[in-house]
Specification:
It is globular, with a radius of gyration of 19 Å. It contains ten helices and no strands. It has helices at residues 2-14, 23-47, 54-75, 99-119, 124-145, 149-170, 180-202, 210-218, 220-241, 245-270.
């Protein structure tokens, strides 16, 4: 058991020669994430009257940028005194995956609690403002140290173009993307898929997830297509089978966070190429 823990969990955190993710730790992290999200976080927040709508999703973006920028800073080794470690008592644990997302989650819940107490149901602006305060310095630090603004801006422009082009084409066949949460979920996966394909095709990036790496090795366009098809199937399933609208929106928010957190992390990393 100790050898398994070291091989599949400890070394991917502390040893840069190992992929950050493998089949075992991906399955474990994914299972834990789903359990915590849908059986702990959702029931608690739903009970408190939180509505996971488009307004909530927009307010959440600064917190996503916080995690993205911290990952990018460490990936570029801008702060060499911070290093990977499996020890939660050390700073490095909270600024590398998976610890960085635990930190972002804690700050998100903190911002949500404070905002709700001070503003009641009209908490979204304060919630977003706290997120902006949290992410401002890390994002600014990234911008100051960018060496390839063209790649960064070009990727953002490509994401916007692909999203609106896909929406324009899709509306001929379905009204699914008229729902703003659905559109954000698709945009998130388009972000992750397209930027990952660009990073691996034109830059010296490597994919950390083994299944994604396998598909990308076959064809980067296939990776993007599978991302989009998968999210559309999931959205269709959620819309058809989830009678609780708030739970349905939470599931979509889950997809939005997964897509943009990984996709925007790659966009930021391209800024350092």
């Amino acid at each position: 058991m100790q050898n398994l823990l070291e091989e599949f969990f400890i070394k991917p955190i502390i040893d840069s020669s190992y992929r950050g993710y493998n089949i075992v730790n991906t399955a474990v992290y994914g299972t834990i994430l789903l359990i915590v999200a849908f059986f702990v976080v959702y029931p608690l927040l739903h009970k408190k009257g939180i509505r996971f709508d488009f307004r909530f999703a927009l307010a959440l973006f600064p917190y996503i940028l916080l995690g993205v920028s911290l990952r990018a800073i460490n990936s570029a080794r801008l702060l060499p005194f911070i290093y990977k470690t499996p020890n939660p008592l050390e700073l490095g644990f909270w600024t590398f995956t998976p610890g960085v997302w635990l930190l972002v989650f804690a700050l998100t819940i903190f911002g949500l609690i404070i905002s709700r107490k001070l503003k009641g149901k009209d908490y979204h602006k304060l919630f977003a403002s706290l997120g902006i305060a949290f992410c401002f310095l890390p994002v600014l630090f990234c911008f100051i140290n960018f060496t390839n603004w063209f790649a960064f801006i070009a990727c953002l422009a490509l994401i916007a173009f692909l999203t609106f082009a896909f929406k324009f084409i899709a509306k001929r066949f379905t009204k699914m993307l008229e729902n703003k949460m659905n559109l954000l979920a698709v945009a998130g996966q388009l972000t992750d898929g397209s930027v990952t394909a660009i990073a691996l095709t034109f830059f010296s990036f490597r994919e950390q997830h083994p299944l994604s790496a396998l598909i990308l090795n076959i064809n980067p366009a296939l990776f993007i297509a599978l991302k989009v098809v998968t999210v559309l199937i999931l959205i269709y399933y959620v819309d058809k089978n989830f009678k609780n609208k708030n739970l349905a929106n939470f599931a979509k928010l889950f997809l939005i966070i997964l897509g943009f957190s990984t996709g925007l992390a790659s966009v930021f990393k391209l800024g350092f190429t």
